[in-house]
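=== RUN LOG ===
request id: a7f3
mode: sequence -> structure
chains: 1
length: 767
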Amino acid sequence: MNRPLLSLAVTLTLALPAFAQLKPEGPQPGPGNVTLSLDEYNRLLALANRVPKKSEAPPAPYIVKQASLKFRVSNDDVLGSIQFEGETLGTNATKVPLASGVTVFDARHGAKPLPLLLENGTHTAILPGESEFNVSLDAGLALAIDAGRAGFSVPVPLAGSVRLSLSVPGERTNVQLNHGIITHRASVGGNTEIEATLVPGQIANVWWNTREVVAPVAPREVRYLSDVKSLVSVTESDLQIAALVDLNVVQGESEQFSLAVPEGFEVTAVNGASLESSEVQNGVLILRIPRQGPAAHQFLISLERPINDAKTSAPILTFKDAQRETGEILVEGQGTLELTAKESGGLKRLDIKEVNPYLRALSRYSLQAAFRYHRQPKESPTLALEWTRFPDSSVLAAIAERATVTTLVTSEGKSLTEVKLIVKNQAQPFLKVELPKGATILTAEVSGEKVKPVQGGDGDRVPLLRAGFRPAGAYTVSFVFLHAGAPFAKKGDSNISLPKMDVPIGILEWELFLPEQFKVKDFSGDAISASLLPPQYVFYGLRPSNSIGVGEGSGVGGMAGGAIGGLTTLPMNGRNVMSFAEITPGVALSPGQLGGMVIDASGAVIPGAQVEVQNTATRATWNASTTADGRWFLLGIPSGVYQISASAPGFQTTRQAVSYNAANPAAYRLALNVGSVSEQIVVESTAGRIDTDASAVPLLKDKKHKGAQPTAPPAPPASANVFNLQQRVAGVLPVAVDVPRTGTSYRFFRPLIVNEETRLSFTYKSK
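=== RESULT ===
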């Protein structure tokens, strides 16, 4: 058997077992159910319901992986660069502190310039979030040279690892350091080069010995950097400048600095930790410092000059021979003024919030504008200021929200006037009142207690406060005065006035009550007749059917029906029914509050009235009393249908049914008629009508109809204010005045009165 046949046989022999092991794949199982044990099923459910882990915020906003310091000693300086590599971890821009204790000449982020902030002596960069950074600083250090020795100190940045590469003049120079380990030393081209690993966060001291005694070094040119932050204050008489000066010496040793004093300015103060003395010579401020002092100096310099115009130029302070000049300017103004600042020559406007916080801390007045500059060789920054000053207004110590005035005029021409003020008072003790000639104050009260008015050469004084009274809000001050006046003739013209009062009055309501034997017309003066105002503008415009026509010269008398004050009144089914206006001007309610105002027939407020609110479904009841301005409030009232009842001594009781929505509450005004307490009025609102006892309404025989019909109760005097003033005349006031018991009432309004008289003139004729 030849060799090829033998090889083929061996190959077939070895391959047959392998072919025997290859079996055709069986058919794949079709879809169907899978049977799992309970433990397997629960394990799958637990895996499906597992809450994914929340991403956690990084423990630090940034990391500095490594820092590389490369310096070379040249003459008397240590110059080089610092390279930082790291990563910001937060999503927002992050402040990354880089280096301290070095003078930075330039900074770059990659290939782009990078601005730096100086915070507490540390150069800090603001870098974008969630990104790696590579920052390079060109920096320098001061070299200390003594006899036979030289060295410098460098604050080691906080980084994961810090490497130092240093080149020192001289071959095989014995360079040593602390807070680090020298890992490589070599002599190259007449210099000694070392590489070392430093301890982060420490101050590494590097030194070496020189072979010969160093000869005294000739003085070198002084180079320093200047940063001046100026606060420019525009006062009423002066232009003042307060300058925070930072000077950083980068070469040489300086004994003094020179500042050109702007023309017309006087140096008022100079302070500084390293300042030995200062003086002004030929318009130049000289600051003297120790020769062996620190490289960084800080001064506070104050200057000022008088101003006579409403415009000026703010000077930019400049130090002589400064290598770089930067700074900020903050402008402030005293008093109320509108200031315009126009910048040029490299000044850049910035937001006041970006100004250095130490400069802002010097300000005393309102801040107007802020600027920043970096002086270039061919630029001269200038700042022009122009302003308009407004006179300051005095702060109000007291104000009267409302004045309610009631005047009763007798047939002899005398007038008795009561003035009620709703006052808000901070610290004003008296109200100055300039009465008309021939008038005298009879009595005065503060919050219901009598006080004694004071007479002065420039007018009378009514106390606004009394002993032991500390008002927390609005309260009532009232006084009554008597004016002799002139007697009435059969016909003619007459006038009447109210005194000046030295507190601003929001709105004045004046009710003038004249005897019934006179017919009056042609009113004129400072106040507006209530009849000329639309109903929605009259604060107390709601009047029931038996009230008088206020401001229209209508006499006292009842009315069985008709339109009065924008309301329609009708006698219906033996009841006096009145359509009721729900919205009350000047009363604002929050959700869940129910409230309103109680007034009399003429619209004057009724203090101390009792208000009862009852839920018609649950019979739950709430009670309240009206305040001095006639208002009442309840809290936490749910939505529903309620019956509101109002009563006061000497007035009829009024009831009203309302549909109340707690989410959108409305204020309600309740009007009370003068009458006996057994008389009641039914008020019909949008929610329905409540019946009253018809037996309480007096009946009169009607000649045209059989039976009885209801009529309105007897008409009251003009208003509760008139009625109360008539009652006070009888034995309460210190003088006897024959005031009219019947007559005609006229009402007038005047808004916003500031220390002015209010006058009315009219024509009259005896009936």
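=== NOTES ===
Helices lie at 3-21, 38-48, 357-361, 720-729.
The chain has four helices and 56 strands.
=== END ===
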